[in-house]
Amino acid sequence: MSDIAFDAPTIIRTKRDGGRLSDAAIDWVIEGFTDGRVADVQMAALLMAIFWRGLDHRELARWTAAMLASGARLDFTGLSSGGRPLMTVDKHSTGGVGDKTTLVLVPVVAACGAAVPKVSGRGLGHTGGTLDKLESIAGFTAEISTRQVRQQLCDIGAAIFAAGELAPADKLIYALRDITSTVDSLPLIASSVMSKKLAEGIGALVLDVKVGSGALLPESQCRELARTMVELGAAHGVPTRAVLTDMECPLGAAVGNALEVGEALEVLAGGGPADVVELTVQLAAEMLALSGVDGRDPAETLRDGTAMDLFRRLVGAQGGDLSIPLPIGAHTETVIAARSGTMGTIDAMAVGLTAWRLGAGRSRPGGAVQPGAGVRIHRRPGEPVAAGQPLFTLYTDTPERFTAALAELDGGFSVDDSAPAARPLILDRIGA
Ligand code: URA
Predict the structure, then answer these.
(1) What string of pLDDT tens digits covers the 432 residues of the chain?
(2) I need a labelling partner for 269 at 20 to 30 A (CA). Which of 5, 155, 180, 195 fits?
(3) In testing the pocket of ligand 1, which one of 174, 178, 207, 210 has its CB within 8 Å of the most ligand atoms?
(4) Is the Cβ atom of 86 under 6 angstroms away from ligand 1?
(5) What is the Cα–Cα distance from 87 to 117, expressed in whole angstroms?
(6) What span, in angstroms and rounded, lies between the C-alpha atoms of 20 and 49?
């Protein structure tokens, strides 16, 4: 597209002043950013303008389509396993704290008979990323070829991989958003999620839209986000369902990359926290229903070890070695209960930021994360607490981080006289 027709400063100014971006301007800026003609600072300014001014329905549809068109698209039609055509399905979460569901869900759904080509991302803001978690397993790589993805789908039924050539505009924009406080924007989240997911060439999609203090958006916008993404999916011919789930409190008891892998392994072994199990089984049922796979009971695959076997095969196929112990931060700090009572609510955002301060997330593009950094929660909401008992253990390799991390956690939990009101984990469903 001609550089004479458009320039980044005009596009930024148009959005900054509340104007509409034309289809051609959107195509130009996404294409130009992907191939380097639009600079990071210009895209960062445009993202901030979008953060404040938003994108209307038509702009968002075009922005998403342009991101999708920035790269390759996978196509799994014609693939089969054991003589049966593969029914592909995926799920994507809008980002939570302690949300290790993907690590369990992918093998569960594959063990039930569907095929899951799962594109995953890295941590964003205070939320963890599946790739950062999996890379805490020695040797694991998410950078696998499309050929390997296809092979794994036929042999194992699942692959978890980096977007690579899929929606490269998202990879670049995602990294900028992470360090410019432009993560929590409805159109930027919707286009980011849907461009990658539509590029996967899947037959059906389930979205886990988080609602609550640890979610990326305030509760009032989560329903609209879900509706928007369902519409984008339908417009591209992919049956899409959104499940709104509670993220007021972290999911499970482990927050941080390797800590979460450890907890996912507990769930795959038939144990683990009840909320992680419930969410996994529920999302698996939605994925199987939407993809038309009348397979096994998802809960059964956790009880009989078939999901664990599948996870081990997946990790092995992608170079990981689960016999090597998971890393754990070399330094710890324990938060002790100052009084007896009942654990009150635990603020997911506070715990997410604590883990991030400890080194579980990044503060500059492409920075390294500490695989062993994070928070272990010893008392979950509603559990009895005795004065002096440990409530949280904080892990890091860099102990100078403790002061800021503890400050994030301060005020993010309480020990009360009575249990907090119980909140359902599954709040609503929208879409197909
Ligand atoms: N997940 C994504 O892929 N993108 C976002 O913007 C948020 C969550």
Answers:
(1) 556 689 999 999 999 999 999 999 999 999 999 999 999 999 999 999 999 999 999 999 999 999 999 999 999 988 888 888 889 999 999 988 999 999 999 999 999 999 999 999 887 777 778 999 999 999 999 999 999 999 999 999 999 999 889 999 999 998 899 889 999 999 999 999 999 999 999 999 999 999 999 898 998 899 999 999 999 999 999 999 999 999 999 999 999 999 999 999 999 999 999 999 999 999 999 999 999 998 789 999 999 999 999 999 999 999 999 999 999 999 999 999 999 999 999 999 999 999 999 999 987 767 889 999 999 999 999 999 999 999 999 999 999 999 999 999 999 999 999 999 988 999 999 997
(2) 155
(3) 174
(4) no
(5) 10
(6) 12
How many angstroms separate the alpha carbon of residue 94 from the centre of ligand 1?
Answer: 5
CA atoms of 17 and 208, how far apart (whole Å):
33
Spell out the alpha helix ranges (H) of 86-145.
101-111, 130-134
Q: Residue 311: in which H helix or E strand, if any?
A: helix 306-317
The one-letter amino acid code at 134 reads L
- Which domains does the chain possess? 8-53 (1.20.970.10), 80-318 (3.40.1030.10), 331-416 (3.90.1170.30)
Q: Is 409 in the pocket of ligand 1 (CB under 6 A)?
A: no
